[in-house]
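Lab notes, practical 5.
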Amino acid sequence: MDTQRILSSVDVDIDRSPVCKRARYDMDLPDTNRWTLSKNELILHSVYDSGVERLVSDSEFALEKELKRHNVKSGAASETPTSKVEQIAILEASLPENTLQKLSMGELDNIMFHDEKKSCNNSNINYFDLLSDEVILHIFQKLSKTQLGNVALVCRRFSQLVEDESLWTRMDISNRSLEKGAMGTILSRQVIILKMSKTRVMDPPILPNVKASLPDYRCRLMYLDLTMASVSPPSLVTIFNQCRRLKKLSLESVPIDDSVLVALSANRELEVLNLAMASGIGVDGLRYLLTNCRKIRELNLSWTYLNSVSIDLVCENLPPTVDRFNFSGCRKLLDDQNVVQIVANCPNLRELDLSDCTSITGDAVKKLTVLDELNFLSLSRCYLIPYRSLLVLKKMKSLAYLDVHGSYINDDEFKVIKNGLGANVNINKFKFSSIARPSVGVKKSKIWNMKIKD
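Output from the prediction step:
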C-alpha cells in the first residue's frame, strides 16, 4: 500500500497531524507497507512501531484539547463570530473532516464554554430535586423518629414525605410521656409495631383533629406492648375502639376493667395476650374476651387475683388453639377439677405454668400425662403435690423441662425425681415464665422477636 495515499502532505507534519494518525513517521525506513488500515482503524507494525500505542479516534475530548491548544497560542477566544471563523480556519488544516462537521453543527460553543457553564451552575443545583420520592424515603428510613421531626421543618416537600406510612411502621416510645392527643397522631400514621412500656399516656389520648378520631377509622396496629404503662381504662377503650387487627398485646401490670376487655374483644385475630399482674379483670369482661377471641395461642393470666367464678369461667372457655398458658398465682382457688378442664379444652398444650396453685394435688399431675405435646411444665410451690407423684411424668415422651422451685422438696427427694425422670428432663432451668411476654432478658430492642426502631 502506498504511503502517500494514506498520509497526505499535511500529515507528514507531526505537529499538525490528526490525533488519530499521530505516530512515529520515519522517511528513511525502506518498507513502505508498514501501515495498514482496516475498518477505519490504524494498525501499527509489530517491528517498526514497537512501543507506539494506537490512539483513540477523534472525539469531543480530542476536539476540546485541540481548541484549547490553539487558544493558548492565539489568546482567549472571543465571543464574536469573527473569532470563531478564525479558529475554524486555523483548525481546518489539522482536524479531520468528521470533526469539522461537528463544528458546523454548533458544538463549538458547547465545547468552548462548557467549563465556564459547569462551574457557574454547580452552586445553584438542588440535588434533592433530582431525587425521586422513593429514594428520599429510603434515606429517611435511616433516621430516628426525633430526626424525622426535625427534617419535616426543612421544606414543604420534606414535611409531606415525613408523613409517609412507611417511615412509621415500627416505633419505640417506651419510658416517655405522651401529651394529650399524641396517641391519636401515632395511630394516624398507621404504625404496625408499637412499644410503649412504662409510658405515660395523658387523657384524652385522641383529639378530634386527626384521622384516628373518625368513627370509621381503623388503624393498622397489630403488635402493642403496654407493659407497666400508665394509662387509664377510658383511654384504653378509646384506643382499642380504633383497633381491629391486634394480634399480640401486653397489658402487664396495667389497671383495666370490663369495658377494656369488651373493646379488646373486637380484635378477633388476637393470638397472644399478656395480662400478667393486671388488676380489675371481671367476669363479664373475661366472657366477652374468651367468646370472641377464639384464636388465642398464648395467654398469661398469672397473678391477676381472679375470684373463683372467674377462674372457673377461664378454665371452661379456653380456646382449643391455646398452646402456651400461664395461670400461676391462683393460690387456693384453682383445684384439680380446673386442671381437668384445662387439659380437656387445650389438648395441644406445649407449655403450662401452674406455679403457686397450692390446692392442686398429685391427682392433677396424673391428668397432665395425657398431653402428648407438653414440653414445659411448672409446678413450683405446689405444696400438696407429693414428690413421688412427679415420677408419673416419665410417661410423657415430649416433656423436656420441669420446674419445681421451692423449699418443700429437699435434696434427697430432688435426686429421686431427677433419677426417676431420666436425663431427658431438665429440672429447674428457668426462674421466670416467658409465656406471652413481649421481651425476656436483655432483648430490649425487640418485642415478640420483632425488631423495633427508636
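Observations recorded by the TA: Residues 1-58, 76-81 have pLDDT under 50 and may be disordered. The chain is about 35% helix and 10% strand.
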